[in-house]
Amino acid sequence: MLHRLAFLSQRATLVRHGIHQSKLIVPKIGQSLLQRQYSAAAAPEVVDAAPESAPEKPMDFKDIEMLHPDTQRALDKVFKYKTMSPVQQAVLTRLPTDNDMFVKAKTGTGKTLAFLIAALESVTKNNQQLKYSEGTSILIISPTRELAHQIAVEAKKLVKFYPFKVHCLVGGEKVTAQKMQLSRNRCDIVVATPGRLNDLLGSFGHLRRACENLKVLVLDEADQLLDMGFKRELGDILEQLPAKRQTLLFSATLSDTIRHDLSDSALSPNYDLIDTVGDQDVQTHLHVKQSSMVLPYDGNFLSQIQHIMSTHPAANQGKVIVFLPTTKQTMLFADVLHELLPRRRVHEIHSLKNQSQRARISRNFRQSRNDILVTTDVSARGVDYPGVSLVLQIGVPSTREQYIHRIGRTGRAGKEGEGILILSPWEKSFLRKECHDIPIEKLEAVPDLEPVDSVALANIGKNMDRSFVREVYTAYLGFYSSRLNQLGLPRSSSLEAGGEFLNSFGITDIPELSPSFKQQLGLVDRRRQGSSRGSRGDRFGRDQFSDRPRRSFSRDDDSFDRRPRRSFSRDDGDFDRRPRRSFSRGDDDFDRRPRRTSEDGDDFERRPRRSFSVDEGDASERPHRHQSSRSRSSGRYDFKTTRGSSRKYKD
Ligand SMILES: Nc1ncnc2c1ncn2[C@@H]1O[C@H](COP(=O)(O)OP(=O)(O)OP(=O)(O)O)[C@@H](O)[C@H]1O
C-alpha cells in the first residue's frame, strides 16, 4: 500500500514538472527490429524522452519518492547531488519498472548514476535487503578497464549505506586475487570487462553460481562494446546468465548493428527505448564550442600549437586533453608539450602503459587542476575527468564517432568546455565529409608567430633517436593508410605527409622504406604499382590491395577503425594489446616497440634511475630518448638518464 501511495505521489510530481510519459509513442523502426530470440510476439513500448520534451526546470532526486532511503542518503551525503541530469530523469522517473531499457544518451550526461540507481532500485524494490546468499544481483559490463574502475568507484559510493559489496573484474589484473576476493566476500554488484568476465564465468564456478540469481544486467557503452569486437564474448556471457532478468543497455548511438548484434538478443521484446538525444540533435553538446584549424606541417606547426596551449583561454582554465592518432605520436607530443610548456604537468596514457600505470596516471590527472593529458583513443570514451576545459585533437580522428566521443571529455555535467581540431591541409576533407552537420567553426592560425624556442626544438630532436623516428613515421603511415580512401586522397600522399610531419619537428632525415613495405601498407599508387602486382589484380578482377593496408603486420596505432574488430579479444580500449601478427621483415618492421615484460610495474619511480623499458612510467618521468639505444632481441630501450632529473614531477 505504502508502495502504491509513493508511486501515485511520484506521478503527481511528474505532472507538476510537465512530464507526461505517454507523450511520444512507438516509432515504427522500433517495432520492425524487435525480433528477439525467445519471443517475437509482443510489441515494444517505446518511450522517447528527446530533449525538446524535457521540462525547463530539472527535477530533484528527492522528487523520486520511490528511491530507497539509503540511495537518497548517498545522493545527498556522498554525491551531494540535488537535481537530476536529463538522462537520469528520463530513466528514474520510470521507476519502479521491470522492463528492459535501451537508453540513448549523450556522453558526459550522468548515465553511470542513472543505471546504477535504476539497477539498485530494481534489486531493493519494496525495501527488501539483499542477502549474502543471493550472490550477484547486479552485473555491469563495460568495454574498457578504466571505465569499469570508474563505474565501480561510483557504485561503491552509491551503496555506502547498504551492506553491499562491489567487485571490479578486469583484464590486466591478477586473476587469482580477483577469485580470492570473490570467494571471501559477499558479491552483490560486479563491474567487469567482457574478456575477463567471460573467462571467469567459464573457469570459476563460484562466480557462475553467484550469477544464477542475477537480477539486473547493465551493458554500458554498448556501441563501443561492439566496435571493440566483443560480440562473441557478449554472446557467450548472455548464454550463461538467467533469462529472467532486467537488462539496461546504454549507448551513445542507436544503429542497426547494435540492434542486430546485441539489443535483439540481450533485451526482451517489449523494452523501453529512451532517447535523450533525438534524431535531429547532434551528439556533441551545443554548449561545447568547437572549432578547427587547418595547419600545414611546416616551421609554424609547433609554434601554433604552443600558442594555443599557452594563450587560448580554454587551454588555461582547467585540464586539457590532447588526442593523437597513434601511440608513437602520443609519446612524441608528450615530450614536445613538456618542452614547450615547461610550467604545465604533462601526462601520457596509451597502449604502452600497463594497467596499473594507467590507473595511477588517470588518478593524478583527475586530481589535478590544469594538467595536460596526451593520449590516444584509449581515453576517448567513457572516461570521466572532471574539469577538462579543452579537448585538442591533433590529426584526423579515426571516425566521426571518435571525434564526438573525444569532444565528450569536456563540457561534462553541463559545465563549459571547448574543442579544437587541428588538421593538416590534406586531412581537411574530414570536416566536409564527416562533420558537416556538427557546428565546428573555423579557427585561423595566428600570422607571424615566432618559431618555437630553438633550445626546446633541439631538445625535442635530441629525444628522438633513429629507431623512435622510424616508429613514429611507420605508425603515422600505418594509421593514414587506412584513412586515405575516406579522405579521398591518392595512396602515396601519406608518404609525403609523413615526411613533412617529421620535418615540422626539425627532422630532415626521413627514414627509407623498402618498396615491399610501402606496398604492404598500400601506399603505392595504382598506376605506379605496375607489373609486379598487375597479374594478381587482373586475376581477381580488382586490385588486391584495394584501399586498405594489408594486415600482415603489427601496427601501433589505436584507431584502425576500418578493420574488422572481431579477430581478437580485449578488454580495454586499446588496440595495441592484440596478439601480434606474425611477419618477419627487415628494417621496415613495425614491431619495434618494446614487449611488455614482467617488469612492467608501476613502481619505477621508486627505483634508482637506470635502464628501463619505455613501458615503464610516462614521459614526464621517462628520461629523454636521445641517449637511447635499443636491442632488437630484447625489444627494450636502454636509457642513460642525464636529463631525467630535470623532470619536475613524478607520475
Ligand atoms: N545529478 C548530477 N549532478 C551533478 N553532477 C553529476 C550528476 N550526475 C553525474 N554527475 C557528474 O557528471 C559527470 C559525468 O557523468 P558520467 O561519467 O556518469 O557520464 P556518462 O554519461 O556516463 O559519460 P560517458 O558517456 O562519457 O561515459 C561525472 O563527473 C559525474 O560525477
Automatic annotation (TrEMBL):
As one GO molecular function, the record gives: RNA helicase activity
What's the EC number here? 3.6.4.13
Q: What class of enzyme is it?
A: hydrolase
Q: Which domain of life is it from?
A: Eukaryota
Say if the entry is tagged with keyword ATP-binding: yes
Q: Where is the composition biased (Basic and acidic residues)?
A: 535-577, 584-599
Q: Which UniProt keywords apply?
A: ATP-binding, Helicase, Hydrolase, Nucleotide-binding, RNA-binding
Domain (Helicase C-terminal): residue spans on this chain? 304-454
Reactions performed catalytically: ATP + H2O = ADP + phosphate + H(+)
Do you know which InterPro entries this protein is assigned to? Answer: DEAD/DEAH_box_helicase_dom, Helicase_ATP-bd, Helicase_C-like, P-loop_NTPase
UniProt cross-references to Pfam families, sorted A to Z:
DEAD, Helicase_C
Per the record, which residues fall in region Disordered? Answer: 522-651
Keyword Glycosyltransferase set for record = no
Q: Which residues form the Helicase ATP-binding domain?
A: 92-272
For domains, the record's comment is:
The Q motif is unique to and characteristic of the DEAD box family of RNA helicases and controls ATP binding and hydrolysis.
Q: Which family does it belong to?
A: Belongs to the DEAD box helicase family.
**Role summary:** RNA helicase.
Q: Can you say what this protein is called?
A: ATP-dependent RNA helicase
